[in-house]
Write a structure and sequence with these properties.
By secondary structure, the chain is mainly beta. Helix content is 0%, strand content 30%. It is elongated and about 45 Å long.
Length: 200
């Protein structure tokens, strides 16, 4: 396996859209940044919990495949799907939960959300309707952070990569965490600074 690849390690609990019939269980996935030290306990790891609120089926795009990589993977090329989890069926679920683990808190991540007509997303390529996201500094050792996004149905692939100032570039101040349980916080940096609550 090439360095810097993120591959699935654990899949677990089921989740179902409340307004959709019960079918195949949805998986919660745990990704590990490969090439880093293993087995040292959660206090020396960092976790990012991702919640993707998915749309219904439109234009025959019934399946979704989510890929998570480090920034060494360019958005404009196809990512090898051999180590990715199976796509999800939008008729079964409307929320996808991903857990990404790292032992290096300096890492950013890239995310692709591919919408497919084939159950295995074998039709997925650079022309597939999809979303791209770049998440800045989502990891803090010993902490569990969170990012949530509501998605619509895409009609085409993006025409430009995520950049600071764009909606698809997730600034570290948008990554939830270390706010003392407050549900009213939207900016997770201290005041007007660029210091995240988890960096205090």
């Amino acid at each position: 396996m090439r360095p810097n690849t993120i591959s699935p390690k654990v899949q677990g609990r089921s989740a179902r859209a409340p307004n959709r019939p019960l079918a195949t269980p949805r998986f919660t996935l745990l990704f590990i940044l490969v090439g880093l030290a293993w087995g040292t306990g959660c206090a020396r790891n960092a976790f990012l919990e991702i919640e993707l609120r998915l749309p219904g089926v439109e234009n025959g795009l019934r399946y979704v495949s989510t890929q998570v990589r480090d920034p060494g993977f360019a958005f404009s090329v196809n990512w090898d799907r051999s180590g990715d989890p199976a796509p999800v069926d939008l008729q079964d679920v409307d929320v996808e939960n991903l857990s990404v683990e790292s032992k290096d808190e300096s890492k950013d991540i890239h995310i692709k959300v591919l919408f497919c007509t084939d159950p295995n997303c074998t039709d997925a390529n650079t022309n597939t309707p999809q979303f791209w996201f770049a998440v800045e500094h989502p990891f803090y050792i010993g902490e569990r952070t969170r990012w949530t996004r509501t998605l619509t149905s895409p009609t085409a692939p993006p025409t430009e990569e995520p950049q600071p100032g764009k909606d698809t570039y997730i600034d570290k101040c948008e990554v939830q965490g270390c706010a003392g349980g407050s549900t009213s916080v939207t900016n997770f940096c201290v005041g007007s600074t660029n210091t995240h609550f988890c960096e205090r």
